[in-house]
């Protein structure tokens, strides 16, 4: 049978993961719903192309389940959590205990034993932050109520998973107070080993393997599955260990490229396989029968969850003095039951604690909450006032002055030498004709600040330093640098060409920039789709991650001296966004150009919020030392990319901020920058900072 062939199974899964989530997202439905539907269609009640009992499906699903909980722990912002940990704990307790009690009460009414009833209650107690991308897009993540809700996820998920662990342990053997105490004690010891032991080991390993990303990635995977394996040894489900491992490794990987690789592998492969398997396990005949014959149970669970989660949010409103928009946002964010709920429900079904009728009701609950939760979040979070931005001084917005202050304080302590040079480093790896506009832009920036330009050529090393290939490469590099030097001389700007021999281009650029105390790296990028373009794209990405200073990746279609109209999309007011604006103002001032700041907000954003955002942005851009003509344009529209692309037609240059892809509930979130780059036809600058 086709369903028994591992290659056929894997091929079908890849096809499903590639096609269905985008289709459902166009219908304004979460992509994971599409994966569940695919599982139903391809399973035993449909086309019978996939079998959940095959070893291939079991393996991929188990890995996906473990990976999902690991990523959930990895994505929690521990810094923001620590700022409001007391309120997060308070709301976390409320939004855990109230649904737990409600779910237990409902399950007991419908005839479950205490163990199954308590586990049912714990399924309602946790929540998945499906609405996080929405509040992030609206720019209200910094709102205290939103931060508290995000922080509460730590408590609800850990507590729910611990209840699951205890219930599974009780189900596996004879229950006693002593065995419960032993189980809780072993859990505490195990959690301590994972949270502190693995974190210490991880930091030591990362410190010793600074430039070995592949080994670091493999180390993280090893930690995850060791934690999952260790959990099974103390009769705790694997997902508990995976979640704790995510929290432990959270601070180790930070925002490094390793974290991006971890999330990428999980979000595009393993986690979607888990959701497809959930659909395969759903018996449609039993599901329909459950709703028709036991709709009282299904409705009781759904309304029990909605009511208890709302009551928890209402208590937070009364205690912490939140307004109704914040309260409703807290309720909707804590409503969706996806990640921990589905994983725990599957475990409960597999070990025999939960009957199929409860499992099917939980699936229905997931469908309802995953659809309506984000919809309610979008409606009310858009009405939350944007958090105030507190910049103590204008220098915090000018990257080179802040960097120079740090450098000055260091050099004064060492030898009293102070260097105020603004240094622009320009990696030259295209032909002189392709590099001409790039060098001109770098020279204009350096001249404006009274600094110098360093054109840099990286030559790949050979075993023999007298190799003919190396000699030829050095000659070609000298020719490119001579061309760059001629341009700098025509602008009367000091330039010091550099040739470095490195096996790794990205490391050569970032290390030279550090050695020369560069204030800015300006790199070329061309809109090509071939293998070479993909290679340079990878190099650029690595330089973004490793450089100590900002990086401007440039695609210029005309002489920079002829550019007079600049567009800068601003998503929200943050130090990073304002520094991107400062860069645009700096370049505009070299050529008396004008800058337009474009903000695209949700259709439901109130006039008061728009007015407040406009006023705040106006105040901040007016603090700049440059006297550049600037204006602000705000447009209401749900899809940001088309608005930017259309507006770009009236401008000569668009300055975009480099943003990383993030994940939510294990599924990729689209990057607006990527969409815009594929559509605009004018010159482009992608501006990024270290770990931006």
UniProtKB/TrEMBL annotation:
Domain Cation/H+ exchanger transmembrane, first and last residues per copy: 15-378
Transmembrane segments: 7-24, 30-47, 88-107, 114-134, 146-168, 175-197, 217-250, 262-282, 294-316, 328-351, 357-376
Record keyword Membrane present: yes
Pfam families from the UniProt entry: Na_H_Exchanger (PF00999), Usp (PF00582)
Principal location listed in the UniProt entry: membrane
Family the UniProt entry places it in: Belongs to the monovalent cation:proton antiporter 2 (CPA2) transporter (TC 2.A.37) family.
Localization per Swiss-Prot or TrEMBL: Membrane
Gene Ontology annotations of biological process type: proton transmembrane transport
Recorded GO CC terms: membrane
Molecular function via GO: antiporter activity
Keyword terms, alphabetized: Antiport, Ion transport, Membrane, Transmembrane, Transmembrane helix, Transport
Species in which this protein is naturally found: Okeania hirsuta
Topology in membrane: Multi-pass membrane protein
Residue ranges of every copy of the UspA domain listed in the record: 424-555, 563-686
Record protein name field: Sodium:proton antiporter
Record-linked InterPro entries: Cation/H_exchanger_TM (IPR006153), Na+/solute_symporter_sf (IPR038770), UspA (IPR006016)
